[in-house]
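Dear colleagues,

For the upcoming journal club I promised to circulate an example of a predicted protein-ligand complex. I picked one with magnesium ion because it came up in last month's discussion. The inputs are reproduced below in full, followed by the predicted structure.
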Amino acid sequence: MRLVRFEIKGQLRYGILEGDRVRETLRPYVEGIMPMQTVHALADLRLLAPVRPSKMLCIGINYRDHAREMGHTMPDEPVLFMKPASALAGPGHPIVCPRMADRVDHEAELAIVIRRRTRHVSVEEAAASILGYTCFNDVTARDLQSKDGQWTRAKGFDTFGALGPWIETDPGDPNHLAVTCRLNGQVRQKSNTDQLAFNCQFLVAWASRIMTLEPGDVIATGTPSGIGPMKPGDTVEVEIEGIGTLSNPIVSEPDGGSKPSIIL
Ligand code: MG
């Protein structure tokens, strides 16, 4: 099942994607999926990021080839950082290159979406806490990541957490999905989640030992090798097998700075 969050005629709605149509659900799907009679043409609505998380947990170095390209050794535990909810960008939403940054990189990642409040679950119990999976672009100001020595600014700008286009509740084995990033149609990253050092169920269990995971929270599982810069005018795509493609245009920050993102 593909779950979408969307705007139609200024109203925020949730629904189930059925081909080129969307069936509304009674409530946000994290409260239980209750399909209704109302159906819209996909062309008549605007897809938003499929959830509005309370936090986006991100895993730093989780593919061996990416660790090598960054000059890191593999950690014995996941490297955890967070993006603020204000960094969220939906499918098709522009990713803004901030004036403060010289280099803005793509990082294609599989994202886990949490179904229910979760704390201290085992690896075996973790699957029951997962609503589904979606595509994520962990956009990173690489120069500021090096300069700051920690990653809050480099990864926390508005629009640096691109998420979508929908939540796939059953993409197949989440630890065996092809992950591809294309920049202007050219493949830049190509790997498979079977290369994850710490897999999806482990990450949910491990994170739940640190903090309470809330319904709709996102855990981004890390990026494979091939990261690289994007510039205004580019289009970046993150495609994940069994899920779909998240596409975002890259724009420059306007004179006078960006306005707050329009996220319903
Ligand atoms: Mg990343």
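Two points we might discuss: The domain at 2-47 is CATH 2.30.30.370 (SH3 type barrels.). Residues 183 and 236 are 5 Å apart (CA to CA).

See you all on Thursday,
B. R.
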